[in-house]
Amino acid sequence: PCTGVVIVAAGSGTRLGMGIPKAFVPVAGASILTHALRGLVDLPGRVAVVIVGPPGDDERRAIAEDALDHELWIFGERLVGATVVDGGASRHASVRAGLGALPAACDVVLVHDAARALTPPEQFTRVAGAVRATGHGVVPGLPVVDTIKRVDASAYVLDTVDREALRAMQTPQGFPFAGLVRAYDSGAGEATDDAGTFAAGGGVVEVIAGDPDAFKITTLEDLAAAERLIARRAL
Ligand code: C5P
């Protein structure tokens, strides 16, 4: 088997307000991107990794290449590709750029948000294993604990959505490689996640259990939560 991993790290991180692209913000002594790469350690078989970085940013490209060198040597000869490519104006465009840089020999692809920096290694292996076992798209998700209301344009409540039928999506999202490339090539609209693009292309997607530790770092509060989680894991 060969697992291709696309790590999207081209976002600006405006909501974090640190003035640098989010994936390059340090948490407990290493960048968000470096922490994300550490999640790959337990992937079996051959592995190819593409980091999708901020376009036209040579300084960040060099930092991302360093991170690949420092975190992925553990794979030895099992590492069949490690590159950094420029992202696009949307996450969709960034994923597309990443897919184009993976070796055709990969049977499964995992698409992961760098911002979900503390995703446990076990979630990567579980998603990849489920894709191989089923041939479907596989997405980790969590039950929704809040009551969710649908509203109109003026914020008047229309109705309550049955939350038992809802799951909040995480990453990595896993797919048969050729199938996801086909879905992106068919230009089936700009879905907000890869499962949406895969499904628009006719693919079947199933949800498996996610992990609270795979939360997306978006705000300063999330950054503090990430620091605390790393400290707890070091005990
Ligand atoms: O902005 P948000 O946190 O939802 O982005 C999710 C992930 O997609 C982040 O890891 C971000 O770096 C990435 N992204 C990207 N290219 C964009 C926008 C977002 O790679 N144009």
TrEMBL record:
Q: Which domain of life is it from?
A: Bacteria
Q: In which pathway does it act?
A: Isoprenoid biosynthesis; isopentenyl diphosphate biosynthesis via DXP pathway; isopentenyl diphosphate from 1-deoxy-D-xylulose 5-phosphate: step 2/6; Isoprenoid biosynthesis; isopentenyl diphosphate biosynthesis via DXP pathway; isopentenyl diphosphate from 1-deoxy-D-xylulose 5-phosphate: step 4/6
Q: In the Enzyme Commission scheme, what number(s) does this protein have?
A: 4.6.1.12, 2.7.7.60
- Site (Positions MEP for the nucleophilic attack) found at 163, 216
| Free-text comment on the cofactor | Binds 1 divalent metal cation per subunit.
What this protein catalyses is: 4-CDP-2-C-methyl-D-erythritol 2-phosphate = 2-C-methyl-D-erythritol 2,4-cyclic diphosphate + CMP; 2-C-methyl-D-erythritol 4-phosphate + CTP + H(+) = 4-CDP-2-C-methyl-D-erythritol + diphosphate
Ordered alphabetically, the record's keywords are: Isoprene biosynthesis, Lyase, Metal-binding, Multifunctional enzyme, Nucleotidyltransferase, Transferase
Query: Site feature Transition state stabilizer: at which residues?
Result: 15, 22
Q: Which cofactor does it need?
A: a divalent metal cation
The record describes the protein's role as: Catalyzes the formation of 4-diphosphocytidyl-2-C-methyl-D-erythritol from CTP and 2-C-methyl-D-erythritol 4-phosphate (MEP).
Q: How does it assemble?
A: Homotrimer.
- Which protein family is it in? Belongs to the IspF family.
Can you name this protein? Multifunctional fusion protein
